[in-house]
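Quick illustration for those who missed Monday's session on complexes.
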Amino acid sequence: MVRKVNTFKGEGPLKNGIGTYRAGELYGIIKISEANCVGCHTCSGVCPTGAIKGSFGDKHSIDVEKCIVCGQCLLNCPFGAVEQMSFVDMVYEKLKDKKTKVVAIIAPAVRVAIGEEFGAEPGTLTVGRLWAALEKAGFLIYDNNFAADQTILEEGTELLAKVAAHAGLKELPIELWGKKITLHVEEFKKYPLPQFTSCCPAWVRYVEVFYPRLIPYLSSAKSPQQMAGATAKTYGARLWNVRPENIFTVGVMPCTAKIFEASRPEFDSASKYLKKQGMKDVDTVLTTRDLAELLKKMNIDPMKMSEEVSRKPEMFKFYSGGATIFGTSGGVMEAAVRFAFHVLSGQSPQSMSPQWDFDGVRGYTKPVASATIPVPLKEEYQKVFGAKELQIKVCVVNGIGTDGAHLKPIVDEVLTGKSPYHFIEVMNCPGGCINGGGQPVHPLELTLWDQLFYAFSKII
Ligand code: SF4
Ligand code: SF4
Ligand code: SF4
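Prediction with iron/sulfur cluster bound:
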């Protein structure tokens, strides 16, 4: 049983920048309905940025300048007073337009949650039937797990290059799938360590608004959603034999901040690459809840479809286990560590081998997890690094925490030059994207006090 979340249509991207927003970005994606807010103050207790205004008993509101669009207030409001901007109608119209190919970019955390909207138990895995439902609705599929693998190749290589550059190397030879490449790493010396992950758009906006000095520490890799959008409109267009301007890309995300991310003006790589003006890499985003609404509107129930998936890998539909764990706190870190371990040790993952389970970085049981990963170096690297083993020090921040509580000590270490880490993952939502602001919402059990408070607020 899930609770309906109220949505509203947006006014479109900003024509001119306002405060912490630039021209082209969406503004006010999350808002509090004055009519439904009872002033219980629960939302303020989960907001990572202190963006919520109002004292106990008052109507609350959001300071959009400070809001990072994470949707945690929406998930946790017991009275359904927090609302989200929705693009369901826009996608519905695009699907009806014969000349447009609509591509669904499906994030890992959606497939374990969408079933709930159709009466399944929480956590029911829905891969084949979700693909089938989307294809029945008229979408082409670009699984975001495929793009998560792209992200790890970029982000993992960038990390290796920075570690090598800070160890004093000019070049680092690496071998991937039998191909030898020489990375020219010297220029990476100007980028400081530790490297922070950049795939959580709420965290990226947090850095921009509250810690701009951290910007040089962020990985330059785009998030999987944005890599998928750019690739779909370039290589995908060729593969599907469709004109890029006739492709409409839709992120299907567990996340409300992804709605904001897609609107960021720098994400027009396909447009630049193809020298065609006016194309966004990702045209719009549906949350898990929005997708359920769309499928219900089209009378499509994924739970009535077959879960079987073709064993033959299809383009944009195959991926590694490392990509799947992006959906949970510590997952991006573990995928990156697996990549670095593979490159530096020359060892390949054995199926189910515990050697590839880096439990120490699985962050979902505590606010901050840290680990030192000993990586045995293959012979050529032993000469390069002058050691038999490299110790990679990593940290996972599992949710920024109320008013940044989990994050602050980690950031303070970085800004004072005392951080012991090479790589830090930050995901805004506690537990990671499986608990994102776009996921199904369950009605909370209201205590007698809540019910009395609610009844009272309606008569004053
Ligand atoms: S009713 Fe919802 S929006 Fe209003 S104060 Fe409580 S949690 Fe916040
Ligand atoms: S919880 Fe997130 S979405 Fe809600 S006001 Fe705070 S920053 Fe904005
Ligand atoms: S943790 Fe995931 S769901 Fe939450 S804001 Fe970041 S990307 Fe979105």
